[in-house]
Prior knowledge:
By secondary structure, the chain is an alpha/beta fold. Helix content is 42%, strand content 16%. It has two domains: 133 residues, Aspartate Aminotransferase, domain 1; 235 residues, Type I PLP-dependent aspartate aminotransferase-like (Major domain) (Aspartate Aminotransferase, domain 2), CATH 3.40.640.
Amino acid sequence: MASTLSSRPQLQHLTAQLDELRQKGTHFRLRVLDDMQAPICTYDGKQVINLASNNYLGLTADPRLREAAIQATRDYGVGSGAVRTIAGTMKIHMELEEKIARFKNVEACVVFQSGFTANAGTVSSILGKEDFIISDELNHASIIDGARLSRAKIKVFRHKDAAHAEELLKEIQNEPGRKLIITDGVFSMDGDIGPVDKLCDLAEKYGAIMMVDDAHASGVLGKNGRGSIDHFHCHGRVDIQVGTLSKAIGALGGYVCGSKDLIDFLYHRARPFLFSTSHPPSVTATCIAAFDILEQEPERIDRLWENTRYFKQELARLGFDIGGVSTPASETPITPIIVGDGRRTMDFSRALFDNGLMATGIAFPTVPEGKARIRTIMTSEHTRGQIDQALDILDKTARKLGILV
Ligand code: PMP
């Protein structure tokens, strides 16, 4: 029998907000993947070229990783059975953490259920209400939520503006509270790179803790995809490095790298670690095998960058606004196509899908009002033919809708 809950008055404020989104043209319906993430896949029964996933290195479908997941399920079952601190720490969890710590060249690592919980769980637990967080205005939502949960005082600097970050640090330099400087390594909506080196200089000058969220830099920037810290040669200068296992690594999860004491502290105080069940063996084994592939097949990252350069160059040649004027210029495989108006962006995204291209429209509040865009992500696995076909669909659809004239 159909539920009648939606007619109950208690939730009518939600219905009203949804109606508002519908009026603005930014209400969306979830697209459903019928097969698996790949450059060509099937959403809602339609085969499309996929420019929407974070599957940078094509690992979600890699046969070796699928086999690792199946073998781990055979050997260790489907679940860990408890939170890590009670009875849910398996040998395979420790193996993954040691592997990531070696890969990142740090003392220790702890894996969380997601990149979101890694950020939020860390920021919220290491600071208190006497402390200060100096945060880039475009940092990820998980950093913002973690900062709010910490109850520390939050000071937001203009995007990538280290001079502004320094002004904020000067204002509080005589305050007794601890200071944390935090930036994304790669910003998820614009694809630009955070000024990690300059912020490290500030952290050292003002005695602040330095933290970088490398969700979109892991597997993408630096030697073998070691991330933004390697890209900027800032080894040993970043106290807390966060990464995700859900994007280039192809599976699910997040991790925090740093000193032994930092990780031991998070074992004792990070709430998602303490109060939420750990990964199943299948996910953990997949990630272990994925780090082996990062070490053994750097050519995937070379292909990713080759595809990225070609795609960006051709988008610009066709006349698309791919950032750099009213929005930051992308420097990575995330390339926004700026449209501006939310409704127009969503219409463009739907028309692209109808013409065979999956490219997500992103509007306010995920990006600022007036900066709505189609967000594209290139992978190492797209062929030149697929990229050319995607460009052709983008060009023809944009001209038909008057986005390109
Ligand atoms: N940080 C950034 C910059 C991200 O883009 C994301 C994913 N949207 C996350 C953290 C969270 O990662 P996960 O999807 O693994 O929770």
